[in-house]
Amino acid sequence: MAWVLDHLDLVWSLTLTHVGLCVPPIVLGFVISVPLGYWASRSSAARSVLLTAGNIAYTIPGIALVVLVPVVLGLPILNPLNVVVALLLYAVAIMVRSAADAFASVAAEVRQSATAQGFAATQLFWRVELPLAGPVLLAGVRVVSVSTISLATVAALVGIPSLGSFFTDGFQRNFAVETLTGLVAVLVVAAVFDLILGGLGRLLMPWNRRRRLSSSAAKALSQPIPTTGRF
Amino acid sequence: MSIEFRHVRKTYPDGTTAVEDFSVTIPSHSTTVFVGSSGCGKTTLLRMINRMVDPSEGEVLIDGEPVSGIEPVALRRRIGYVMQNSGLLPHRTVLDNVATVPVLTGTPKAKARQEALAQLDRVGLDRSLANRYPGQLSGGQQQRVGVARGLAADPNILLMDEPFGAVDPIVRDELQQELLRLQRELGKTTVFVTHDIDEAFLLGSQVVILQRGGIIAQIGSPAEILAHPASDFVADFVGAKRGKRRLTAEERSAGDDVLLVDAGGYPAGVISAPDGRLILAGAGPKSRSVSNKTDQAGDA
Ligand SMILES: Nc1ncnc2c1ncn2[C@@H]1O[C@H](COP(=O)(O)OP(=O)(O)OP(=O)(O)O)[C@@H](O)[C@H]1O
Ligand SMILES: [Mg+2]
């Protein structure tokens, strides 16, 4: 405990670094996955290609990716951008499926009735389909958020600072308190992100609060969460 | 705003022919009902009017103008559409749902909402419901919102696809009466789809009985169809053959009312006959007030 109190500055700065690594992939992953997921919900061919690609990408071990990305991008191995790109790949791999399910969960009835009222195709997307896909999209982002925060610790293995540095350092020095500190910090960051996302969901989707989920949305939400934390 | 179907045919991409060859003229300012059992092509026909479905052959004309020449989105904004389970936008409040079309056509939001409040009054909804979401309403209330939304832009044409199909009989009865009242006030050219023959006779001044493939079994006023069913199919469909609608007066000393029984001997309704003399409502459709309400629809 004394160690933690002595190193609060380090804990705080590594937490900020960690958050800095995680936010871009979560946000960009969402932005990229929404159009891909929409496409997948429209065409069964696109769906099978995108989801298979996502599954394969998700199978690549994190450490292999962190080593491979700089080679592919031609960046110095210590550039944090490598980690961001690797995390983004995972984020999209998970999020495309959620986004496809999210758009599929929009009731055909509502879409048809909106068309009948005179929504043009782009208005239908922005004003009807995207908001109604919201609850399932949010569930996907929450999974991506937790998974990204956990995965980002791998960065430490290639020498890029993150909360994972507490793991590598604690391991090398055989100092459990440090490893434990890193673990708690990761959990706290994940919890805070999840609270923020939940709050955003309630703010942006007030209509969703007391509504029973349509059966297809409920099904999409109850799919097993992919396992995270691959060392 | 009369609507004319001219030899329309619809074959869907998967090869299903939903409508074979359908021609009908729908007069303006009155209600025409398409009635038939499930899958006979009612929805397909209805959606040809607002171009949700384009016919494979033939054409639909509104006041003599082919709809194929009208841009679909613009066309839909000037035609009201109400469907089963209301099809309301679950993420918008009641008021915003009602204001949908006026907002789409560029009415400022505040003004559209103000007018939407008046629409709520018109369909008998309490203004206190204005800020609720559709998921917080009963099925009957949702249908009323659906009707208010369909009328909000004051369209000349109103399309209704089994709008009362999913509510209980008592609420359905209320909604039907409400629609009759609105129709008297507004005189829209209304096309109403149902599989309930009672509903068809109650609401329609012209009733089109359909068979599979959009084939017209009979077209006419409810009185004409009841009095002269064109075929066994129609007689069966309206229930005349099974005696559901062949009512006999039974002598009863219950005040001025005479009990009517159907061919099976079951009480079907009463008719006023002060001093043993029947009150005749005059010739024409009005005499259908005799038809019984509890009878569930010649099992369409
Ligand atoms: N998009 C479609 N693709 C292929 N076939 C269709 C499509 N829509 C309808 N059909 C078929 O066309 C026929 C008529 O369908 P339609 O929906 O018009 O019937 P309906 O009279 O409205 O039936 P219901 O009372 O069940 O609503 C049915 O056989 C139906 O299966
Ligand atoms: Mg139908």
Description:
The complex is a heterodimer of chains A (231) and B (300). Helix content of chain A is 77%, strand content 0%. Chain A contains 10 helices and no strands. The model of chain A is unreliable at 212-219 and 221-231 (pLDDT under 50). By secondary structure, chain B is an alpha/beta fold. Chain B folds into 2 domains: 3-227, P-loop containing nucleotide triphosphate hydrolases (Rossmann fold), CATH 3.40.50; 242-297. Chain B is 30% helix and 26% strand. In chain B, the strands form 3 sheets. A 6-stranded mixed β-sheet of chain B has the order 6-7-8-3-9-10, sandwiched between helices. A 4-stranded antiparallel β-sheet of chain B has the order 2-1-4-5, with helices on one face. Chains A and B meet through helix 6 and helix 7 of A and helix 2 and helix 4 of B.
Keyword list:
heterodimer, A: about 230 residues, mainly alpha, MetI-like fold, 10 helices, about 75% helix, disordered C terminus, B: about 300 residues, alpha/beta, Rossmann fold, 2 domains, 6-stranded mixed sheet, 4-stranded antiparallel sheet, about 30% helix, globular, binds adenosine-5'-triphosphate, binds magnesium ion
Secondary structure topology:
The complex is a heterodimer of chains A (231) and B (300).
Chain A: H1 2-6, H2 8-42, H3 44-59, H4 62-73, H5 80-104, H6 108-117, H7 121-151, H8 164-172, H9 176-204, H10 215-221
Helix pairs in contact in A: 2-3, 2-5, 2-7, 3-5, 4-5, 5-7, 6-7, 7-9, 7-10, 8-9
Chain B: E1 3-11, E2 17-26, E3 31-35, H1 42-49, E4 57-62, E5 65-66, H2 72-77, E6 79-83, H3 94-98, H4 100-104, H5 109-122, H6 139-151, E7 157-161, H7 169-186, E8 189-194, H8 197-203, E9 206-211, E10 215-220, H9 222-227, H10 232-238, E11 248-254, E12 257-261, E13 267-272
Helix pairs in contact in B: 5-6
Bound molecules: adenosine-5'-triphosphate and magnesium ion.
Magnesium ion binds next to helix 1 of chain B.
